[in-house]
Amino acid sequence: LPDPPLMTELEFWAALVSNYPQTAQRLPTLTSNKIRNGIPPPLRGVVWMSMAGARDRLLEDEYERLCTETSPYENLIGKDIGRSFPNVDMFKDPEGEGQKMLAKVLKAFSIYDQKIGYCQGLGFVVGPLLMHMADKETFCVLVR
To answer: In whole angstroms, how far apart are CA 108 and each of 52, 91, 105, 121?
Structure first.
């Protein structure tokens, strides 16, 4: 088989975001090497979404619906939020968007997956995702 044509850095990441399964299948070594060497920070959110197969309108709608419901874990989530990332600017302010989004995603997930519900460790998964994408996308990646 002939070698695949050379791609620019931007072309590679665009292909990966556009269709992760196909790109990973066509270029497995390149994909592994690029990911191991680090996804460029501005692209992390969209690449993670693509890798997780998290672009799902129905799931996004489900998230919006879950945000309007009440979770039995809300008080516990509220207590844990401020302790999760005390030294990260995005999550320092108790009234700030970071803590609000973190609480919102954790609450929605606790309702969505009733087997797991809520546990303290989830915040440490959700927080880094929120640093690279919106709350709706974070929920979709977490669920996938």
So the answer is: 19, 18, 5, 15
CA diameter of the chain: 60
| pLDDT tens digits in sequence order for the chain, 144 residues long | 566 667 889 999 999 999 999 999 999 999 999 999 999 999 999 999 999 999 999 999 999 999 999 999 999 999 999 888 999 999 999 999 999 999 999 999 999 999 999 998 999 999 999 999 999 999 999 999
pTM of the model as a whole? 0.90
- Chain length of the chain: 144
Q: How far apart are CA 113 and CA 121, in angstroms?
A: 15
Please check whether residue 61 is in contact with residue 112, taking contact to mean a CB–CB distance below 8 angstroms.
Answer: no
Cα angle for residues 15, 19, 112 (degrees, 5° grid): 135
Q: Which residues contact 36 (CB under 8 A, 6 or more apart)?
A: none
Q: CA dist 11 to 8, 16, 47, 61, Å? A: 5, 9, 13, 31
